[in-house]
Sequence to fold (442 residues):
Amino acid sequence: MHTVQPPPIDNAVRDRDETLPRAELEALQLTRLREVVERVAHVPFYREAFALRGITARTIKSLDDLRRLPFTTKDDLRRHHPLGFITVPREQLARIHGSSGTTGKPTFVAYTAKDLQTWSDLCARFLVAGGLQPRHTVHVAFGYGLFTGGFGLHYGIEKVGAAVVPAASGNTRRQIEIIQDLGAEVLVCTPSYALTIAETAREMGIDPRRLPLKFGHFGAEPWTEEMRQQIEADLDILAFNNYGLSEVIGPGVSGECAHRDGMHIQEDHFLVECLDPDTLESVGDGEEGELVFTALTKEAMPLLRYRTRDIARLTREPCACGRTTVRMSRVTGRTDDMLIIRGVNVFPSQIEEALLRVEGTTPHYMIEVERPGTLDQLTVKVEVLPELLSDRMDRMQRLKDRIGKEILTVAGIRANVELAAPRTLERFTGKAKRVVDKRGQN
Ligand code: ADP
Ligand code: ZN
Fold:
């Protein structure tokens, strides 16, 4: 049994703008939308699009006019590589980051000194919403580098006034010693790395539940509610979800409050839309769609209607914490992560959900797709708990059958299931890469 306490519901709010009455918030958004349209008007990509559509800041009369603005995609960024979207002279840049390149060549994003302040404030907000206080010590096991996770959280933590331990990624055993030595109560990393930390601690003969950690802020990759439960049980902590992407600002776009019922989008800085990725029409609240963000306050590189390819749902139901901002669900996947297997759309997160429903499995898995003949073939490899590995073929077969059945229920697809021994599949220090698609290679 684990002893995770219920969330520390103290409804901490860092900034009055998180709780503005809707009308006031929307008035602020409209002013900022006009300002940003003005700022980007001389970026060649937008200048052309504005000319075609007759857009100037003065023609933005209401927030509905957002729909007249052009979309921006990752390909647009690539076409204007490396910094074709900046709105300020190069000498005003204070920092340049890159996307982690999950889906190809990295793209660069730029910040002015003021953007860096804004970014720290936004990270500080979700950290405070999730219980961070100045007295805490935070262990950051995100990579520090072009990736926005490390530096973004680092400065957010400093902004709150907590002590940050910039452990960065790698050497998990050493990280565990540092957590013990310095008594960090808070862990920041990817959810998959949180599991690696727990597992490595056990290998070192340390009970991960006895580490000083009390809660964690995890993000940068999709994870399921089942995964949250696993992390909370393994480390005996509360796990909070936060979301962001480099093109929009980095982490700090949204994060959970103490109620952990969706991530509050920081709407005074970002306008969000949730669209059908094919028709580009708005989907209703509660329905899945692609998230599209417009950065309202950034100076160096504000993007209009950036298509994230992340699939999630929005809700405008009031939250008990008092924030008035719209909340987003977990990201269930990226449109470019979606596998089409024998005509069925499958997201890796569905496989994860299915696996973690079956007792005896672990959250360490790999998904392989092949096309040996004319039919796609899906193989799911999953590590099982050591006590479940047995020489009895019938037992192993039963476990495989149960997993296969669960995958069929959740994802609607038949999979070959392979059980793997503990610690045989790859571990990740940053974003997990669990899909190997071998179709088209032979
Ligand atoms: P890249 O697109 O190369 O991975 P980023 O480092 O900017 O570049 O990563 C941003 C992406 O990471 C998001 O678009 C999203 O797909 C994923 N992501 C970030 N935070 C979360 C989260 N909390 N849940 C699910 N996915 C997330
Ligand atoms: Zn809330």
Q: What stands out?
A: The two ends are 48 Å apart (CA to CA). The mean pLDDT is 94. The first strand starts at residue 93 and ends at 98. The chain has two domains: 1-335, 339-437.
